[in-house]
Fold this sequence. Notes:
The protein is mainly alpha-helical. The chain has a domain at 50-107: 2-Layer Sandwich (Beta-Lactamase), CATH 3.30.450. It has three helices and two strands. The protein has helices at 2-23, 50-67, 95-107, and strands at 72-76, 82-87. The chain has a two-stranded antiparallel ribbon with strand order 1-2. The chain starts with a helix and ends with a helix. The model is unreliable at 5-11 (pLDDT under 50).
Amino acid sequence: MRRQVLTSLLVGALALPAADLFAQQPAAPNLDAVPEKMPFHIAYGAPIKAQRANSLIQAAAAEASKRGWAMNVAVVDSGANLVAFLRMDDAALASIPIAEHKARAAVK
Length: 108
């Protein structure tokens, strides 16, 4: 009798935490539900405005001119799309795609 009571208590004690674990599980999300509005409004990060992109290009061009460098400068947005580009006088034509690639690689 004593052994049956201890076994019952032991089984009952093990079943209670297991029942709590299943009760605390969150419900699975309904992937077919259509939200009323988008759950986020900036999918890829904050966008860069054209005015800000041009000010960055002017700053880079000023520094390059100060050092005597002829450069191509590219600015891309958070989705790696070209926003602004400057080819300084005497900059190499071959470095145009290189500048664009470097800007895109920096974002990704």
